[in-house]
Amino acid sequence: MEVCLNSTKLLNLNQNTRLFVPRNSISHSLKNPILQFNSNVQKRPLNYPLNQRSCFSRQIRSLQRPISSRIKAAPASSATSGSETDKLPADIMVTETQEPNSRVRLSVEVPAAVGEDCYKRVLKEFMKQAKIPGFRPGKIPESILLNYVGEESVQKATVESILKRTLPHAMSTVTGRALRDSVRIITKFSDMEKSYSSLSSLSYDVIVDVAPEVKWISENGYKSMKIVVEIDHDIEAEKACEQEIKRRHKSLGTLKIVTDRGLQVGDLAVLDISATTIDQDESKVQKVPAAESKGFQLDTEDDDKVLPGFLDSIIGIRQGETKSFPYVFPETWQQENLRGVEAQFTVECKELFYRDLPELNDSIADKLFPGCTDLNQVKESLLQKCQEMEQAAKDQATDTAILDQLCKMVEIDIPQSLFEEQGRQLYGARLLEIQANVKLNEQQLATLSSPKAVNEFLENQRENIINLIKQNLAVGDIFKREKLQFSTEELVKEVQNSVAEFKRHKQEYDEERVREQVQDVLEGAKVLEWLKEHADIQYVTR
């Protein structure tokens, strides 16, 4: 076992174990320091080689562990870095106290008999290592050894030995419940030294996060869920098909400058737009930054993408002309601070174009959809694709609505370590996405990977992270409750597909972690399928 306790000195007690000696640390943690974001310990940035995206990707993926890999029963030995339990000459006393956020405090009292046994072991180890002139290894008198090594060093090593041997015993009380990488010894090492020095016994406190309990507000409420799914009218296959044909037809046209008239529906205009608030007191008039735009390209056939009524106010404007008009932002406008605001808009038409389109007939069918010979084939082919997209969007909206409702049906006391790890996983995915789409310089990479950036993300996304954890835990609970299963063949096939994808992109992977992630996905799919079969689902078009 290796207990990381902010150490400055290392003592080899035997060939297989290393125990670090802390120096009055505020909090002794068994967490992986790369994953650690505890306020009591030094925060470390996400370090990765610059200009090496593959290395960057490997590090971020290493942070992305499925929740199940931490929630599923972790034996005490795994929680204490894999050490085997050593037999003690006397029993230790462990008092367990429940704390908020699915956390348990273990108060450990070590009797003098254990301390004495550890002291003898430490002396024996020092005797083997010490080379004192005139004495053979292992045959050095205790008083001479203590004088040579130093009583303080022996005492510190003895306290370390006590921790090493008793911690697995203490953790056995939370076997199957402790979350991996969440154990922290919170008693100062200096206090343990004083306690041992004066009493030959020792006591210390351990904090550990345990698997949270999923409490259903209504015990079997998930078995008869009533779901209302809102579907955007834009994904309706028939309408989407018509819009796509129109878009493809427009792409075949050429833009020509309008010279003899003003703006009309069907044109494309390039506009400079500005706006100010309206107030009788001119000193209180302010610009509306959100409404300002230079070189804004307005397609008059997409008027639903601009302010309601905006297009009507500029119909007829000519190239080079400026129009000014009052406008009241609707109460339903997405920016709350602009709802109901009275503003004065000024619009200058910089350029004005019309589309010279080919006639929409069978002669351009192949250009609208390669392989088609007439417009009916074009419509049938596009309609099929739009129907597939509609169904996919419908399924996604249904899944989202079910998961959102599951969040409201459970109460879960989420451990801080689980929240932080899930948040880091999401942030890692965000960094990978940014790195894939934007070429970042060294300073930008350092800023984005700093502890400050990660902590800000955790705080800003707190509600989303908590909801995601609740969804995952609720789904896992339903999978167990309803005794759902997936076949080994499904698991093997999906793992092979995932591994093949990693190899295709020449990316490193951990097959065990891939297997865990695939298992989570399959469990989630089975639960969503089961919930859909048992739920009353109503679809509403918005």
Q: What does this protein structure show overall?
A:
The protein is elongated, with a radius of gyration of 34 Å. The two termini are 59 Å apart. The longest helix has 35 residues, at 375-409. It is α+β, with helices and mostly antiparallel strands. Residues 1-65 and 73-79 have low confidence and may be disordered. Among the domains are: 93-211, 2-Layer Sandwich (Alpha-Beta Plaits), CATH 3.30.70; 254-356, Roll (Chitinase A, domain 3), CATH 3.10.50; 391-541, Orthogonal Bundle (Trigger factor, domain 2), CATH 1.10.3120. The chain has helices at 53-62, 68-71, 76-79, 112-129, 142-149, 151-171, 189-199, 237-251, 310-314, 365-368, 375-409, 416-437, 442-448, 451-460, 462-481, 488-504, 511-534; strands spanning 2-3, 7-12, 18-22, 28-29, 93-99, 103-110, 184-185, 202-209, 215-216, 226-231, 254-257, 268-277, 293-299, 322-328, 342-356, 410-411, 536-541. α1 (53-62) runs antiparallel to α12 (416-437). It has a five-stranded antiparallel beta sheet. Strands 11, 12, 13, 14 and 15 form a five-stranded antiparallel beta sheet that branches.
- Strand tally is 17
Strand order of the largest sheet: 4-7-8-6-5
Helix content: 40-55%
Indicate the low-confidence ranges by residue numbers: 1-65, 73-79
Task: Count helical runs.
Answer: 17
Biggest sheet descriptor: 5 strands, antiparallel
Strand content: 15-25%
CATH topology of one domain, by name, is Trigger factor, domain 2
Structural class designation: alpha+beta
Coarse morphology: elongated
* Average residue-wise pLDDT: 81
Cα(first) to Cα(last) distance is: 59 Å
Please report the first level of CATH classification, the CATH class of one domain. Mainly Alpha
**CATH A-level architecture of one domain:** Orthogonal Bundle
Cα-based radius of gyration, to the nearest Å:
34 Å
